[in-house]
Amino acid sequence: MAAPRRRSGLVLVLALLALLAGGVAYWAWDRWQGFQQDPLPGLQAGDGYVVAQGDSFLRVLGKLREAGVHTGTDLEWQVLARQLGAAGRLHVGEYALAPGMSARDVLTNMRDGRVVRHRFTLVEGWNIRELRAALAREPLLQHDSAELDDAALMATLEQPGVHPEGRFLPETYLFTRGDSDLDILRRASSALERALDEAWSTRADDLPLQTREDALVLASIVEKETGIPEERPAIAGVFVRRLQLGMRLQTDPTVIYGMGEAFDGNIRRRDLQTDTPYNTYTRDGLPPTPIAMVGADALRAATRPADGDALFFVAVGDGSGRHVFSRTYAEHNVAVREYVRRYRERFGPR
Domains, the chain, ranges and CATH? Predict the structure, then answer.
């Protein structure tokens, strides 16, 4: 009669062990699922880390720990990496950590190379000195152009003998940490060539411009003369008519460019009378090179200027940046006097 009791006890023990094993398995499964999918605790906006060339998976995991990721064992991270196909396929670059990310998100980002992309903006109207200074101030770029003068820079960009002014299209360019400043310049140079080709191929008939380079030079003057997009075709129209009539352009931005670093913020009568290759008060035609970087709108304005009969323009003087356009010199003098009056009302006598 004792044997059935022993068998019942064994069954009970086995049942308890099965329940325990099932509980452990459920706990392990639940832990595993939570490790993969639950938001990693403690992450703050702006956290991140860098996967460098040659980093092992354990080295990257150490960087994650340093960045505040303490969830999961090394083994769990390795198993998940193999499951996701990320082991041995981590892309070099900078990665962001953000609240709400899971371990699966972190590994998937590294597997797929979803690196942080930064922005560098080339501003319309910048000259080459301003562009190079801005690149030098960007700490996330590698500064491979720092030791190159302008001529060596253009040779490196496969444009030997080309003046660097105006050869880069103002846009916002994305880059990753450690990219070279030369990469941004190459992309901006290629973008400028495409925009210039497009503008020149759709140019108006009978322009007094012989080459696409002439169009680039004129566009740079238009770019510096107004920050009002809708005024650019009208400004270009004034300069085109002057070129057609053989009048000098007489535009202050070219004089200022020719003064270089001697320009102190003011342009005086003697500056207008001092001859340089860029002084359009003393020389006929277009200056020898662009004077600034130009946007696509300025290129379109230079190649498709607005019709009209205005030959002069002057700022309104009310702070809007807009201009008054005049057909005759007498009308222009009236507009200039009005500009001076408004200027003195705003700022007092010069």
Answer: 39-116 (3.30.1490.480), 118-195 (no CATH), 205-347 (no CATH)
